Amino acid sequence: MAMRKISDVNKQDLIGKYILLRDDFNVQIVDGKITDSFRIDKSMETINYLTENGARVVICAHLGRPKGEYKKDLSLQIVADYMNVPFVHDCLEKDFLHDMKNGDVVLLENLRFYNGEEKNEDDFAKKLSDGFDLYVNDGFAVSHRNAASVTGVTKYLPSFAGLLLTTEIENLTNIMQHPTRPLLVFVGGGKVSTKLTLLKRLIHIADKLVIGGAMGTTFNYARGYNVGNSLYEPDMKQDALDIINLAKENNCELYFPLDKGVGKTFSNDAIRTNKSIDEITDDDVIMDDGEKTILRNAELLKDAKTVIWNGPFGVTEWGEIWGRASFDFAKTLAQYTREQKLESVVGGGDSVSVLNACDVMQDISYVSTGGGAFLEFIQGDILPGIDALVKNNIKLDL
Ligand code: 3PG
Fold it and tell me: Which residue among 12, 80, 210, 252 is least packed, with the fewest CB closer than 10 Å?
């Protein structure tokens, strides 16, 4: 069974329809300002498509994890202001629907101010669906959550995939199923424990798997190197060794950091020194991959035809000094993509922020809006939000 797409609905049938649209506007906000509007900007295509075709569009979304309580700093008002659309202060409010005209858009307040959203309470899903003719899920980045606005509402409304969700699925499926080889995957970020399934799956798919950042530190620890006073997961030692064995059995070449950028304290203004992994001492704090590793990664890119990148190699939020390995990598990846030497796919909030900071977003072949959803999708999981669309067969009332 295939998922129904909003682009398959006859445009005439959208005129005057009340549409509940799920978007992912879980964006980074610092000092009351949206610092990365990528997810909102990517949602505009579906919003414009629906309004241009005369629908009445009510967007629902979440911000942060308020756990069922109103929190002023997690209000979506800031997103409504950014989009310049009217804002409804309670996501279960319905009165405003009568005043909406064809082509209007409004944004509802944070769904997670109600417990029913994350708990996927049926009563909440039913109330949320009330008054709508159909539901569109365009929030790929939240489709791994079994929440009321992602799966619950599909029990009550004819449900369709939006344009962004469709594009994400098509692009990521294509890259995972038919990559031009060699396929190189670069994985960084903090925790091996959150990416175990991903690593195991990648070993079966990738020709070369490069593990960097704090994850690389855990692997180096498992391989017997001193990792000093750094962020790593000692409990993951055996899992890391199992992954190394699995890679050998499956002829997937594994690469780890050769050297590291270290300081003496975990702070932005620590002095950066470069040390080979066998020179690291107990009082060193690893905060980035090192110079030889940066060169090795750039060299690896020369032979790649497809590259997937998820997760930073250092503390990128501190800028150039401790983000050097990621920033240099992003620039080289962008350059080779521009020169059509390879196809690149990047997913995950921190890696996407690096692309933004380096101003190379437009050069990458495909940038996913997903964080956790991107990981779960490429590790082969069935995302509940997508599954719910596949199973939905409620007829659209014309
Ligand atoms: C994300 O930012 O990855 C999604 O919006 C999901 O957010 P969550 O991890 O808080 O459920």
Answer: 12
| pLDDT of 1 strictly over 70 | no
181 close to ligand 1 (CB < 6 Angstrom): no
Residue 27 CB less than 6 A away from ligand 1: no
The CATH label, of 2.60.40.420, 3.40.50.1260, 3.40.640.10, 3.10.300.10, for the domain at 179-367 is 3.40.50.1260
Which pair of tokens denotes residue 174? 């294509």
C-alpha radius of gyration, the chain, whole number: 23
| CATH number for the segment(s) 6-166+386-391 | 3.40.50.1260
Instruction: Look up the pTM and report it.
Output: 0.92
How far apart are alpha carbons 51 and 102 in whole angstroms? 7
Helix then strand then coil, % of the chain, to nearest 5:
45, 15, 40
Share of the chain above pLDDT 90, in %: 93
Q: Count other Cβ atoms within 10 Å, centred on residue 339.
A: 9
Angle between helices 38-52 and 163-177 (to 10 degrees): 120
Q: Are 381 and 144 in contact (CB under 8 A)?
A: yes
Burial of 219 (0-12, 13-18, 19+ CB in 10 A): buried
Q: What is the pLDDT of residues 115-131, one digit of tens each?
A: 999 999 999 999 999 99
| 56 labelled catalytic | no
Judge whether 6-166+386-391 and 179-367 match in fold.
yes
Sign of CA dihedral 190, 271, 283, 216: positive
Q: Find the 38 Cα to ligand 1 centroid distance in Å.
A: 14
Please work out whether the CB of residue 391 comes within 6 Å of at least one atom of ligand 1: no
Close Cβ partners of 210 (under 8 Å, ≥ 6 residues apart) = 184, 185, 186, 187, 254, 255, 297, 300
Task: For residue 62, report the distance from its CA to the centre of ligand 1, in Å.
Answer: 8
d(CA 321, CA 327): 10
Instruction: Give domain limits for the chain.
Output: 6-166+386-391, 179-367
Is 370 considered catalytic here? no
22 is catalytic: no
Is there a catalytic annotation at residue 191?
yes
| Amino acid, res. 80 | A
Q: How do residues 298-317 score in pLDDT, each as one tens digit?
A: 999 999 999 999 999 999 99
Could you tell me the distance, in angstroms and rounded to a whole number, from the CA of residue 141 to the centre of ligand 1? 7
